[in-house]
Amino acid sequence: MALNDVxxxxxxxxDAATERLMDLLRIQSISTDxxxxxxxxxxxDWLVADLNAIGITxxxxxxxxxxxxxxxxxxxxxxxxxxxxxGHYDVQPVDPLELWNRPPFEPQLEETPNGTVIxxxxxxxxxxxxxxxxxxxxxxxxxxxxxxxxxxxxxEGEEESGSPSLIPFMEANAEELKADLALICDTSMVSxxxxxxxxxxxxxxKDEFTIVGPRIDLxxxxxxxxxxxxxxxxxxxxxxxxxxxxxxxxVDGFYEGVHEVPEDQLRQWQNCGFDEAxxxxxxxxxxxxxxxAYSTLEQQWARPTLEVNGLWGGYNGAGSKTVIPSEAHCxxxxxxxxxxxxxxxxxxxxxHVEDRLPADASVRWNNDLEGSPAAVMxxxxxxxxxxxxxxxxxxxxxxxxxxxxxxxxxxGFFSSILGMDAMLIGFANDDDxxxxxNEKYDLKSFHKGIRSWARVLDALSRK
Amino acid sequence: MALNDVxxxxxxxxDAATERLMDLLRIQSISTDxxxxxxxxxxxDWLVADLNAIGITxxxxxxxxxxxxxxxxxxxxxxxxxxxxxGHYDVQPVDPLELWNRPPFEPQLEETPNGTVIxxxxxxxxxxxxxxxxxxxxxxxxxxxxxxxxxxxxxEGEEESGSPSLIPFMEANAEELKADLALICDTSMVSxxxxxxxxxxxxxxKDEFTIVGPRIDLxxxxxxxxxxxxxxxxxxxxxxxxxxxxxxxxVDGFYEGVHEVPEDQLRQWQNCGFDEAxxxxxxxxxxxxxxxAYSTLEQQWARPTLEVNGLWGGYNGAGSKTVIPSEAHCxxxxxxxxxxxxxxxxxxxxxHVEDRLPADASVRWNNDLEGSPAAVMxxxxxxxxxxxxxxxxxxxxxxxxxxxxxxxxxxGFFSSILGMDAMLIGFANDDDxxxxxNEKYDLKSFHKGIRSWARVLDALSRK
Lengths: 463, 463
What we know:
Two copies of one chain form a homodimer.
Chain A: H1 2-12, H2 14-25, H3 37-54, E1 57-61, E2 68-73, E3 82-88, E4 108-112, E5 115-119, H4 127-144, E6 150-156, H5 166-172, H6 174-177, E7 181-184, E8 196-201, E9 203-212, E10 218-219, H7 220-223, H8 230-240, E11 242-243, E12 248-249, H9 263-270, H10 276-281, H11 296-301, E13 305-314, E14 323-324, E15 327-336, H12 342-355, E16 362-365, E17 371-372, E18 375-376, H13 382-395, E19 400-404, H14 409-418, E20 421-426, E21 440-442, H15 443-462
Parallel strand pairs in A: 3-6, 3-7, 7-20, 8-19
Antiparallel strand pairs in A: 1-2, 2-6, 4-5, 5-21, 8-18, 8-20, 9-15, 9-16, 9-17, 10-14, 11-12, 13-15
Helix pairs in contact in A: 1-4, 1-15, 2-4, 4-15, 13-15
GO biological process, one term (chains A, B): proteolysis
Keywords (chains A, B): Hydrolase, Metal-binding, Protease
Organism (chains A, B): Leisingera methylohalidivorans DSM 14336
């Protein structure tokens, strides 16, 4: 059988595949830092060459920022399902460098208590994950001379710096990029060894405000007592965001558009192998701290949040300064779920703040921060069940439709710009330290990730 | 009469006195910045030379920091009262320089709606105030050949940088510095034209703490919901410091040692000419914001505070970062009154914070910050009433014993190290912009300040 031959070839070629990934990891494609612009270009060139080597038409496409890589294969086979695969070749900066146990761009295999890992910046996010798909294609092509699906490859180099070129490029090349379904490999497994398809992503609302008190910074010897201190006002407003009895956000109307998770999905989540204690303990928590009526997984995947990400004002140097500052600043983000409307929510939060301003205090808003609604995947499509079966076969463990606490705007863009559903399958683990020192990707994730995509492509071609 | 001749000479010599002050103001004696070390030295030399020119024995005395200036006059007159006069020749830094209307160390007379002012860094704090006393001595000496009191001059050059050498120097030179009473000219008048003797100064307690939540900074896509956010915890704790119904501090036992202001003193304060509306409006307040049961003046002079001077944590750069930070930081100071014990209060505040920590949060305290109790002047001493009469005569307005919201530790050191009471008389106005751009000293403050000290010295010699 063709698939079994493909899987065998993946096993025998694993060392070569790992070497290829190491090659890509050696390229310092940090997208946020202009000093690495040539490296980003080099990574794009590397990917074009690698796709070409497999027999896939591909080219580098310039943008105002770092280039895209677009490739096509199987166009002659009009009856085969047509998928687009998305990944990104850029990586996060490496600082603080002194916390790495080895140079971040000199990747190496390391033995750890959890098995062999590929250590290096980008090993997991997203070069390693991206290459699981490319290697699956390589094996299919080598064994069968062709791929089971028609495939469009779409790699960007600006994901870690806000993807400024992405929407214009997708709009300008919509016809070329359109496919039946987008595949994305940039997510984690719900727990080690449990294959996972993300069925929902939270949305995001960003806002920032400044509480203004006195006209100028005051000396607390002169105004301490009668003076209004905006740091106090800000603290009181932040405290008022929450109801500590229930753990809920206390902003009026905050939960409009939030839906309860259906019973059957909840049961699946409860049995998905999520290691709640490990997840909490690993960062120093003995218990979850969100809404008391919901489990940790629900708090993370299916409930909205209002989070303070930054708070500052007054003096923060050494020693003390008896200042009553004129201003106090606050940055917030909300994670959105269900049908929560970012614009409506922004108004509710702003009203909450404005309603609580004492006399002589005012608020100034930053109007440059955006919002995006939650995304719910169309898991009713037959491709999702086909992929789930393929993943379950590979991992010998029932694959789960899981939620995701994060926000991946690209999934929404495929829908809004290209009218395509997206399916997110990833093999990262929570301890991969993406964005942090000592990033790694389990060799098992890489190996079984390649095998998983070989099976998924096979399954999609049969559905 | 000798005093009248002295006052006349002060009037005719005002231009010369102003020129001398300008000379001193041209010296850039910024004590916090090592780049100006030679300038501090130069200011000390200038003062030694000026005292010598009057006929006063004086010398520069080295310290590990900037030098002291110590002078003596009238030692042969063992029967005369012996006063010590304290002032400081160092000044605050000048930044932001672009907000000055002229170079800060090129002083000049300027006409303003409130009369002629001497504009320049240090004009009020404290070179101008210091020179009111020196010029009074000069006039006395010129007219009468001697001074009516025995006087020790004691000038330091580190007041604006925390006076690190002061206590060791006072301890090492206690015998030399001891006098009957310390005079300090570093305070303001309660309102324009109302001569003021400070009868009480608030004390100070400084503290700083860090709320620690998760072990590391977290991504709100992974932990937003179940994650404990120390910025929220800190905000809730700061909010809990206050009772908004009454405006009081809500820390258990906070008001222990606080006494009500005696009726007669309160009546005096009510009639001291304090411009409450102007004081509040000038910084953007329409009303006082402290304890509702007390007047603005009482809130400022006679009531304790717990003030947040700095708050910071998380991300404060451009745009947004979806971080749940590991730590949140807070700097506080308390102004103390009456018999409040700084050490006991520190324990109460720390207990308040620790009692409110949720599970999985901890607190780390900075143990390097000190405290000092409030100081109540010994206004029962006859010198105080004598000085009050002298000031009333000069300003043709009854002088008042006023409170002061600030803390001047030197007054306490005279008491604790040298066993001396201190009397604080100053001629600054609230709009002098000390520590700020465009510092000035009213020419009227300078002129009548000199005349005031001439009268006070006369009155002390007769008491």
